[in-house]
Design a protein that fits this description.
Layout lengths: L1 H20 L1 H10 L2 H15 L10 H17 L4 H10 L4 H4 L5 H31 L9 H25 L8 H15 L10 H7 L4 H4 L1 H7 L5 H35 L3
């Protein structure tokens, strides 16, 4: 185990140093991903104009809390690995990585993890600022915070695995990132980035509960808003763990098959 820990420590340290060089860009990336905040303003305006000052049980402050929580969690699950894998495979840049005694997966994974630590201080500062401006009020239940963090970790891992698998499709396609854009739409819509899942038609909700998306964004946001229970958090964690295992197996299988194709064309 010591050799594995030393590899993880060295990889994390190098990736953290690399990401620190791009800290200004990280803040810009954060500010460019503000779809949830735009939706927050739209729904707050709708609630203020509605009779009784609420829409389906949500007051303006509760919409602010939900969408600000969604934005916070989505920032912890940003994944760009498909955009790096696609050119690396198609242009042969993957070849030097294959000479190393380590699957490139771990370098990309720890790079993303290290970026979270670079992102976190500015992210928390912006959340505090937006909460003050919007009147968002997070729950006082202490258990909701570790539960939301646990779901975010599982959600990030599941998302990284499927995005990595999409990137590996570059072994067979000219642009694997096209698939990534399609999956992002499902992730955003069913994850609750546009509206809480309870606002969707019943048949959409019934389909969504079989996917990992509602448990990655919507459920942690509901926890931080005080609108979900610990039992729901545990159920969501179990679903994300199951999907993570599935994506892990699929990722490994696609990687092995793709490598045979990569070598067959002389890359």
């Amino acid at each position: 185990m010591n050799w594995a820990w030393r590899k993880v420590r060295v990889l994390f340290a190098t990736q953290f140093a690399l990401m620190t060089e791009y800290r200004a860009e990280v803040v810009i990336w954060m500010l460019s991903g503000t779809l949830s905040l735009v939706m927050m303003l739209v729904w707050m305006a709708q609630a203020e104009a509605a009779p009784g000052g609420q829409v389906r049980g949500y007051t303006p402050a509760e919409f602010a809390t939900y969408f600000l929580s969604t934005w916070l969690i989505s920032q912890l699950m940003v994944v760009w690995v498909a955009w790096e894998l696609d050119p690396a495979i198609r242009q042969g840049q993957l070849s030097p990585w294959l000479l190393r005694p380590l699957d490139p997966f771990w370098t990309y994974f720890l790079g993303h993890v290290a970026e979270r630590f670079v992102r976190l201080p500015a992210l928390l500062g912006l959340v505090a600022l937006f909460a003050w401006l919007s009147g968002a009020q997070f729950t006082a239940q202490w258990w909701a915070y570790p539960a939301a963090i646990g779901l975010a970790v599982l959600g990030f891992t599941a998302r990284f695995l499927w995005e990595y698998t999409i990137g590996l499709l570059a072994f067979w396609t000219d642009s694997s990132t096209s698939f990534q854009e399609l999956v992002w739409l499902l992730y955003a819509a069913l994850g609750g980035m546009f509206a809480p899942l309870a606002f969707y038609p019943d048949w959409v909700q019934r389909v969504a509960v079989w996917t990992p998306f509602p448990y990655m964004l919507g459920l942690p946001a509901q926890l931080l808003s005080g609108k979900a229970t610990l039992a729901q958090a545990l159920q969501g964690g179990a679903v994300l763990l199951a999907w993570g295992l599935i994506f892990g197996v699929v990722r490994y299988a696609v990687w092995r098959v793709g490598l045979r194709r990569y070598g067959a064309v002389g890359a």
